[in-house]
Amino acid sequence: MEQQLTQLEQEVLTKIAEAADLKALNEVRVAYLGKKGPITDLLKGMGKLSAEERPKMGALVNTVRENVTAQLEQKVALLEEAAILAQLENESIDVTLPGAQVRIGNRHPLTRVVEEIEDLFVGMGYEIAEGPEVERDYYNFEALNLPKGHPARDMQDTFYITEELLLRTHTSPVQARTMEAKKGEHIRIICPGKVFRRDADDATHSHQFMQIEGLVIGENIRMSDLKGTLDVLAKKMFGAEREIRLRPSFFPFTEPSVEVDVSCHKCGGEGCNVCKKTGWIEILGAGMVHPNVLEMAGYDSKKVSGFAFGIGAERIAMLKYGVDDIRHFYTNDTRFLSQFHQAEV
Ligand code: FA5
């Protein structure tokens, strides 16, 4: 029996040495040390031995089992280490290889225009205001002197959510909201934001676009203040040599109302394809806040006056960067957007 045991030990140790991976090693463990393995069988057969032989053989079987177990564990450790080394080898990187190019984004041209205008006005003491894009009919129209059924509403048809709730057609409702909130205090705000109209998309129109509203309310605010402010804006956005021109216009919420043109930055006023040979380019609508609008918001129109303007942000960006189609701003074409990268860095 002793000889049988020694033979068995040799056999297992060879199998352990030969096992090439953890799976094979486990199979050896199950085959030799398992409940149905030969070592267990030997232990079971001990009953047939004499009383003197039994402890001797018992000790021997245990020694063999311990030795086999120790060898197995050692081999498991070896195989695990080899597996880790192989994995490290596979995953090793050559740090001297050139890295993958990381593409750095840049601000959208509209964001740049908006931020530039915000900076300019904040520097002149204006605060930045915000208003909801889903707006009440009251603020978008009625509080701006555009009662229900007013014909001027046709110029700004929009997307209605309910009869009283709509996507705002301009940033002017923020005028009404701010006046209402400030309860008679003086105001100097600039308000950029998205607006929506039921306009057919073409090279110069989009159903969604951006406006930047300006509003100043105080004592003795005059048309000349508006003109001076817009002159600063034109020079900042298009160059120090730019002039502005005010043309009479109509908005129900301002009186008098004007359209503001800037002298063409391409031809300097001579007339070219950009200014359609007129020497001037229209950039915004503006005017003195209508007394009805002041009164509706709780201001005394005999004591205070104000001016307001609404700039089309895309219009400014198109002129400033020579973009010929407004849709470029909204199609997310990186070939278009990446052109603004150079100017950014
Ligand atoms: C207004 O929206 C007035 N709220 C502006 C205003 C504010 C006047 C304060 C007086 C006082 P208007 O509809 O003209 O005005 O639009 C202003 C600017 O928005 C236009 O000059 C134009 O640049 C831009 N705009 C208008 N419709 C579109 C459109 N569909 N797509 C792109 N830009 C547009």
Please describe the topology of this protein.
Blueprint: H1 2-18, H2 22-33, H3 38-44, H4 53-91, H5 109-123, E1 127-128, E2 134-136, H6 137-140, E3 165-167, H7 173-182, E4 187-196, E5 208-218, H8 223-238, E6 244-251, E7 254-263, E8 280-289, H9 291-296, E9 305-312, H10 313-321, H11 334-337, H12 341-344
Parallel strand pairs: 1-4
Antiparallel strand pairs: 2-3, 4-5, 5-9, 6-7, 7-8, 8-9
Helix pairs in contact: 1-4, 2-4, 5-10
Give the gist of this structure:
With 345 residues, the chain is an alpha+beta fold. It has helices spanning 2-18, 22-33, 38-44, 53-91, 109-123, 137-140, 173-182, 223-238, 291-296, 313-321, 334-337, 341-344, and strands at residues 127-128, 134-136, 165-167, 187-196, 208-218, 244-251, 254-263, 280-289, 305-312. It folds into 2 domains: 2-90; 109-344, BirA Bifunctional Protein, domain 2 (2-Layer Sandwich), CATH 3.30.930.
Total number of beta strands: 9
Q: Tell me the name of the CATH homologous superfamily of the largest domain.
A: Bira Bifunctional Protein, Domain 2
Q: Beta-strand percentage?
A: 15-25%
What is the C-alpha radius of gyration, as a whole number of Å? 42 Å
Q: What are the low-pLDDT stretches, counting only 5+ consecutive residues below 50?
A: none
Q: Report on the biggest sheet.
A: 7 strands, mixed
What percent of the residues sit in helical stretches (DSSP H or I)?
A: 40-55%
Structural class: alpha+beta
Tally of structural domains: 2
What is the element string, with H for helices and E for strands?
HHHHHEEHEHEEHEEEHEHHH
Query: Based on CA inertia axes, which overall geometry fits?
Result: elongated
Number of helices: 12
Give the strand line-up of the largest sheet. Answer: 1-4-5-9-8-7-6
By CATH reckoning, the class of the largest domain would read Alpha Beta
Q: How far apart are the termini?
A: 87 Å
